[in-house]
Amino acid sequence: MKVILYDMDMNRRVADLLDILKDIALVFFRIFTIFPLLLFVTLFMGRRSIGEMPVFDFLIILALGAVVGADIADPKIEHIHTAFAILLIGLIQKLFSTLVIRYRKFGRAVTFEPVIVIHQGKLIHDNLKKLKYSIDNILHMLRKNNIFNTEDIYLAVIEGNGNLSVLEKSNHKPPSISYPVIKEGRIEDSILRELELEESWIHDQLIQNNTRLKDIFLAMINEQHVLHITLYDQRENQPLPPIYH
Fold this sequence. Notes:
Elements: H1 2-45, H2 55-73, H3 79-102, H4 104-110, E1 115-119, E2 122-123, H5 125-131, H6 135-144, E3 153-158, E4 164-168, E5 178-183, E6 186-187, H7 189-194, H8 199-208, E7 216-222, E8 227-231
Helix pairs in contact: 1-3, 2-3, 3-4
């Protein structure tokens, strides 16, 4: 009788062990199938969704937080599964970082490239549209860099982590403040009132510049009432300088 009970106990332990191994294999499968989807969705969402972190590091932090949070909140979850998931996620991040450094093409495919958004004081509308950044986003980021006039900028680049890097003109005049008086073809009446200007003055300036209001992506006006215009289809005499990834 004791032998039978012993065999039943052994069989139960073996069955429990097999169940644990099966669950671990399931966790392994889930991690390796869900991360490509998360990476694709995050890249599709754009760099603004991840703030300061590289995209895959963002996914790693997100996954680790979810795994640990589920383990804390749900006592039914086996603790060994959580430990295994954390170890495996850590190994994946280590492998991913190694591949990004070793294989440049792979690194470019799974991370965001730096993109020029201002060149020679002109905003690049097509690049902003591709990044899904608004004029207000860029102006806010410039102010965080203590820049209040786009004319002072030689080059501004949105980096892969969403930060704005700015190269100012070396021979620019003392800093001045300029205001967005036209955004995407629409006149900002509040700016005109602040500067005590009439809308007719804007139209006179556009006639002098042989420019239509609907063609303007952004027009900045400085304290000397000088307009600095960026068109939707801005044709520069010189191509944009290369930015290497």
